[in-house]
């Protein structure tokens, strides 16, 4: 154990010490009761958190959803008891002492890691390391954007982050740091809990990076302080707020301060030894029973929790002084509601497309849709991970979001798919903006941790994934998705759209932009596709997930089910089969999840028992059997045209022929099954 | 265009200029003929590559698999024509001028991005940015490890990397840089192609990181040079080799040097304009027809290609001077062949386990297996992304791999799942070592880009993924995999094992360690599991992917198919069903891919038509329908017990009950189907 003079800490700031130790005691008690969790981090960062929440954080514990509050992001999410202790102490209505006692139990709001959907006071779900700090960049972007558009009187707050060594070792943190530095996100303040300990031992066994130099290399304002000195903490936060760059405050701390496990990797985990707990409390000078906070300390904390109430009231007055139209618009954007015009705009576009029947790639279709949607949805913030011209994510009216043009709505994320996805999650969580961003679909892999967190956090981030198959062509198998539709479809609470043409693309965007709690993945083609929805329907057919695009003529002997670029192949196969008198229905299935949500009667109408079934998708079969052999299908009457290996490097049409994803192959499979 | 005095470049080093321009001309010709690709990067980095390959790289073009060659990794894989041009120029037997002419066409070895399995001269598959630089860390670790064990006379080579801005923006590069710096990988040299251009425009629109400072912060030796000055390049490489830290050489270059697209984002892509090509060649002073290299220049390059022949011969003599036993062992390890003892060791352990029938978590089973395998497989290099005690990846005999203990075989990777996975790929590609490494299965997401590349590259990396379900318990849904089995199963050329007990775990390891071209994922439980293989069988039953673990008594009315921790639940369900007179077979299915590979007759024996089928796996159903409703199954006679949402934070047993993954639920489903 590195010696620390705890008596001196107590003596120098006796009141602060006891207030901070309230956090320590709650963390120790809750983890011990749960017999699992992470005790040391809340103990080590209690001083920083106490100064931050009592002196700097702008919030009102009675109004955790106040739009102009400062955001607090516990990137080191395993230290969740730090957050729960703070919320309980300041008087949050949901995180009661019973919840703290119920830490990590079924149904509790105090889950093992913070989960934003369990309590309003929890800004985001963290635990997978590096995600919090990366989402914080999105929070800060949202704030800058809204401040530029609405003025400082409506939006003017900070984003505070506590990150540990794990967060900084995760690669995504570099993407976040570099993006924040480039964008000069001056309202972002990151505290690095520099305790020198990870699970496997000292940080030094796996890392010797000079973190302050690393942040400085990306344009951050950097300070290094004793993380147990409240005056130093206070001064550092003040300096951070005064600087127009993002700030990193390196806080030298002792994990599990005062406990027998202090400064050890054991201190990272659950400290459950009863005698050691008694001893630690003795060292801290804490005499209250478990889960009890002396009234004086609790009321001081509650005062800190209501410190922002008057500021909030003033903010509400300022908002009430806005024009009625502006107030309505602000409320709509904050609620994440789509404007009424969205539906009519999409309908008008669909009608025009069904008439003009363009043959374009669906990535281009997506751009055509965004060109009409972005002007009526001022809350959208688009972007791309350095593939703007390929992802077709930029529309004419957006302008560039930059440090000198904060009203711009297009972010050049750089080659940072993961950082982009996490930042978009942060924006969606912040509220008031609606993020979408593009990359090649194959790089779903890079963005995965954040894409999963979008689903888990119940937020409507939109991932624009272009070049969605071997149709990508010559760039070859490193860039050709095969398993990525399955990956996103396997993820709970995720809508995966693979539209067949511009009409379905418009329908997909309409659905994506009306979600409030579910992310969407748009899988879009590189190659040109014919318009298959040539008959205008005002109804959003994609909202049913799958529908009959072309009915069988004569006796229905076969059903071909296809998505995206393969719908045209299915139609060609149908034509060939019909020519031979084989009645064939074509079902377009742009969204399996939405189809699965339909009632049995509808699903049965689309996929009745009887006819042979052939699925067509230039991707792996995994996930298709449900529709081929399940849902009234039969194993000996079903087949699939798709990929069972990685792709190859060649022109797209040659690859389709080489891998046998053709109308001829589909026809043969149908005939073999009849 | 930033003005460059190309005449001065030519005049100062006229011979060098023409040799380097041979690369430029080939890149320009090949991309133009393919009408796709990336012209500018090979043009910009031709000078660096020329100096490196002709003056420093230890290689013999006639022996591309020489074990002690220097490795060249084109992390900026889109610049593949740089590598193909070099290989052709030095006389590689596979990359002929016809292959260069056939760039990016079906069946060519000259794919859009370098693919290691197409030609021996290609060390690894790159293109997904950041992967090459991250794999290079593994190459360098392998070399250090082998040098320590075999001596400098057998292994003493360098790993050279060309990385672009995209590589350095990708987060994984930070994991690689920090790991290499910490490990003082002095034989690793990274050239940063500092051309200031990405696809979306100037690097400065998305990044202003001071890369030299960033590398220096992680303990790298850093130099900054003019990347078109052959003397500066030569001196920098010499200095890099002399330094005992990993080296980064920042090379200021001009993308598409001398072309109309120089220094623009257009120069990044395919330059196909015929007149501009003529003009560029004019600027370069290049008069040879397309795809032709003047004899003098070609023979100079071929001389560079055979420069290492004598060194290789001396190396072969030194190896031949080793004892016969050592030569055999070296050959075995380089060939990636498992020792004969592996099979008997696994059999002995299985026998002992079937007798003692321990109830342990399969992560612990995995440790028990490794404890007996590691001593007989000296080529293994284990590790964990900071979860050693949880992943159970460390065995007693390994020792720590570190800068002062290179013979150690355990790497503390830090909280870097992605960097670990990529480094392991690099080790596997290097050869002579067999890497495995652990993290929580949920963090498959972080490692995904490298896990996919393991499969695509045909290498046997082993991913030890513990805490493979809601059985993880209190850490909650951020740490509980639901879709991750499906993710890995959807990936081509990947074996996904979910062993039910220690016997199956031993079988899985035996299969994983005998693979030569396929990565394995071991999904292991956190929670204790009973031994289900209580009857010893010398045969590796897991190698068939699935097998009958318990036969129905009486008329076979039901088949329960389960994996991993749910096999014991299936057995309990069977017992309850048998007690009611319902004959029930239990099929353990530790590896779906291997089962799919069995012949129809075997699959039919295991999964005959007729009985109802219920699958049990604490994960999403996606991927299961193939075995439930396909394979002679029927949609109305099949059901699944598993997850259809994210998990929750609570003790494991409560979660199993809460989500209905119980023997009772399985029994009910069977009865409902009968």
UniProtKB/TrEMBL annotation, chains A, B:
Q: Which residues form a coiled coil?
A: none
Q: Which cofactor does it need?
A: Mg(2+); thiamine diphosphate
**GO MF terms held by the record:** transketolase activity
Question: EC?
Answer: 2.2.1.1
The protein's matches in InterPro entries, at most eight in alphabetical order, are given as: THDP-binding, Transketo_C/PFOR_II, Transketolase-like_C_2, Transketolase-like_Pyr-bd, Transketolase_bac-like, Transketolase_BS, Transketolase_fam, Transketolase_N
Q: Which UniProt keywords apply?
A: Calcium, Magnesium, Metal-binding, Thiamine pyrophosphate, Transferase
Gene3D superfamilies, A to Z: 3.40.50.920, 3.40.50.970
* Protein known as: Transketolase
Q: How does it assemble?
A: Homodimer.
Entry annotated with the keyword Transferase = yes
* PROSITE patterns, A to Z: TRANSKETOLASE_2
What would be one Pfam family of this protein? Answer: Transket_pyr
Q: Which residues form the Transketolase-like pyrimidine-binding domain?
A: 360-531
Cite the PANTHER family for this sequence: TRANSKETOLASE, TRANSKETOLASE 1-RELATED
Family label: Belongs to the transketolase family.
Q: Which reaction does it catalyse?
A: D-sedoheptulose 7-phosphate + D-glyceraldehyde 3-phosphate = aldehydo-D-ribose 5-phosphate + D-xylulose 5-phosphate
